[in-house]
Amino acid sequence: MGKLTTNKDQLIRQVDQLLNSKSLDTLNSEELQYITRQLLVDRLKDELKVELKKSNVDVESLLDRWLTTFDSDATRETYGKGLEIFFNWLEMHNKDVYNLNSIDIDDYVNYIKKQYSMNNSIRERIAAASSFFSFLERNDIIAKNHFKGCARPPKPFETKGPEDVPGDTELQIIFDSLNEELEASGKGSEGKKRQARVLIGVLSVIVHHGIRCGALPSFTVDKNGRYRAESKGKEIKGNIDPEVAGRLRELGYDRSRPFRDMKVNSIQKSLERFNKRLVLEGKLRTVYSLHDLRHYAAVKYYSEGKDIIATQRYLGHSSVAVTQVYLASLGSE
C-alpha cells in the first residue's frame, strides 16, 4: 500500500481529533438529538426487517423442511419432539424465533433443566433447538443462533476412546445382571422384568449384528431368517444369528417385527440407568450406551476376519473410507 497523500493524512488526523474530543458529556443538545434519531432509525429498521420476515416466512414449513434433512426416523422423532417443547415455551412467554437474544436462550435452558432430571434429555432438547436455529441462520431467517455456546449438561458417560469400548467381560457382566433381573421377585419386580426383557433383546441384536439403535424399529425378520432394517436411509440386511433368534422367541418378541413399537430414546435411557447402577455397584467402570455396543460389534467383527469390505457391509457404511476412519477411532486398524 502506497504512502497516503498530505491531504489524506491531514483529513485522518482531523477525524481522529474530532472523535477523541467527543463524548456523551461534551455533546450539545443538537448533537445529542441527532444521535438519538439515528439510534431510533436503526432500531426501527431492525424491527421492520423482522416484521417483513414474519409476513414472508412460514416457520412450520421451514420446520418440516429441516426435519427432512435427517435420514434417521429416530432423529426426526427426537428433534421434532424437542422443537414442539421449544415452541410451547415461546408461546407461554409470548415470544417468537425472530427476536430472541442470549438471555432468552439461557431462560429456556434453565426451564428445560427444571423440567427434566436426566442430562441426556436436557441435551437432546437443547440440541434440537440449536440445530433448527443453525438452519434458520444459514437461510438468513435469523441473524444469529444464540444457542451456540449456551451452557449444556456434561456428557459424563460417553465413550471417549478405544480404551472405553466394552469388551467380552463387560458384555457378560451386563447380560448376567439382566438375566438376574428376569428372575426378580418382590416389590417392583415386574418393572425390572419388563426392562430386562427389552434390553436383552435389543442388546442381543446390536452386539451380534452391529445394527444402529436408530434402525431397531424398522428391523424385520422373514420366515427364512433373513433380517432387514433401514439405517440412515439405507437398507441393511443379513441372516439373523440362530442364538439371537432363539433368545427373542424365548422372551416373547414378535417373530417378524420384534421392535416395532419401541422408542429408541426410551431404550437408550433405560440402558444408561441400568448401567449406571452397575457402575455404582462396582461391576462396570463406565456407563455404556447402545452405540458403544455397536462399537463392540464393529471391533469384534473386524478382528475376526480383518476384511474391511465385509465390515463395511456389516456396519452399513456408505464407503470403505468411512469404515476405516470408524475403526481407526476405535483403535482397530
Could you explain how this protein is built, in words?
By secondary structure, the chain is mainly alpha-helical. It folds into two domains: 59-138, DNA polymerase, domain 1, CATH 1.10.150; 162-329, Intergrase catalytic core (hpI Integrase, Chain A). Helix content is 61%, strand content 4%. The chain contains 13 helices and three strands. A three-stranded antiparallel β-sheet has the order 1-2-3, with helices on one face. Strand 1 and strand 2 form a beta hairpin. Helix 8 (189-209) packs parallel to helix 11 (290-305) and helix 12 (308-315) packs across helix 13 (320-329). The longest helix has 28 residues, at 29-56. The two termini are 53 Å apart.
Strand and helix map with partners:
Elements: H1 6-21, H2 29-56, H3 59-67, H4 73-92, H5 102-115, H6 119-138, H7 168-182, H8 189-209, E1 220-221, E2 226-231, E3 234-239, H9 242-250, H10 264-280, H11 290-305, H12 308-315, H13 320-329
Antiparallel strand pairs: 1-2, 2-3
Tell me the Rg in angstroms: 28 Å
The 3D shape can be described as elongated
Query: What's the count of strands?
Result: 3
Low-confidence stretches: none
